[in-house]
Amino acid sequence: MVYDAIIIGARCAGSSIALLLARKGYRVLLLDKARFPSDTLSSHFIHPRGLVYLQRWGVLDTLLATGCPQVHGISLDTGRFTLSSTVLPLEGINFGLAPRRYVLDTLLTQKAIEAGAELREAFRVQDVTRNGTRVTGIKGHTTTGTSAVEKASLVIGADGLHSLIARAVEAPTYYRYPALTCIYYAYWSGLKADETSLHSRPQCVFLSFPTHEGLVLISVTWPRHRFPEVRSDIKKHFLEALALAPAFAACVRQGKQEQRFMGTGDTTNFFKKPYGPGWALLGDAGYHKDPLLGHGIADAFADAERLTQAIDSSFTGQQPLEEALAGYEQQRNREALPLYELTVQLATLNLTSEIQQVQEALQGNPEATQLFFAVLEGTIPAATFFAPEHIRAILTRA
Ligand SMILES: Cc1cc2nc3c(=O)[nH]c(=O)nc-3n(C[C@H](O)[C@H](O)[C@H](O)COP(=O)(O)OP(=O)(O)OC[C@H]3O[C@@H](n4cnc5c(N)ncnc54)[C@H](O)[C@@H]3O)c2cc1C
């Protein structure tokens, strides 16, 4: 059988597009080398801009029913003062969520299956098949060694940062920046946390938020050049960073670390051309950025909607596939670039004097503070907040 789409990677990008395409009646094969439920290397905060997609797809209520705590507040402790706010609502959603990936990804695979997609777990794709320059399918094998070749009108790589599909088709890379940070995180029990709490200190940022099972995720981000040193003794460096906020460190000492540290220095930033003859990319496979602001999951959802629209408009004869996919790339870049540039700037962990001055001036100004956090949450564009007349108004009022 020839599928309409074979999707490699069944986490937040792959399962999302599988469910959207299957709901439109397309024959979808969804492959992953992992089995579900399973965890992956990722912290997992989703801002309202990501939850909007889950709401639209009818998945948000099911996710909330898993007991994932709603996070309505956010604070930033700069070491000299603390800014705090409630989350700026977007389409009626006034909270963020941090679902464990083994919950979120499994839920999305289940929704894709319910919609009619065929999921094959523990299946590792090894290469694409071709007819001339056109990709026509994939070949791979199960963990028990059974080989298979499958054919499709479109092969979609949702296979993450080190995408095999992107490598196989030699997808060109652009807007590239080197890795700027490294990050480690772990989970604690016995801590009280009902908001996203950020601490910025010279050359490090740490973050905490509540997740499933009463646990709190705490992460520390350092400049990338410190990765070898941090990795050599993660716990020591992690606790040294937290000690820069003594009250927070004292709270953490009251709790119990429940899992080992997870982390990476592989925080490279790039876009890839996300389509070619017979293939397309989405999620981290096509666009990867530093995890500092936590937008990878929402961006994967956004890609899933954009790419579904492009594929559907071509498969229903409204426009040639090449043209539809070119539109997908343009739309992705237009919508993703502002947050990408902000992420790269903040990932240097060196705040510009303008941002520092604005943060100072936000004290005692709750409306503007909420808008400032909304920029980090991706709800309003940085260009709107940092427009000269808006900044002038904030500085004048301070
Ligand atoms: C430390 C860290 C913290 C982060 N924190 C956040 C955060 O708080 N909020 C947020 O929104 N984002 C965060 N991110 C980013 C987020 O994890 C990613 O953007 C997101 O996982 C991308 O989803 P994806 O589906 O594109 O890829 P992935 O989640 O990487 O999934 C790819 C899937 O493809 C499968 N696969 C790969 N190769 C093959 C193959 N050859 N054959 C079969 N299957 C294959 C893998 O098994 C995997 O299941 C963080 C990332 C990191 C590393």
Automatic annotation (TrEMBL):
Molecular functions per Gene Ontology: FAD binding; oxidoreductase activity
Annotated keywords: Oxidoreductase
Residue ranges of domain FAD-binding in the record: 4-334
Coiled coil: none
Taxonomy, superkingdom: Bacteria
Pfam families, sorted: FAD_binding_3
Name of this protein: FAD dependent oxidoreductase
Organism: Ktedonobacter racemifer DSM 44963
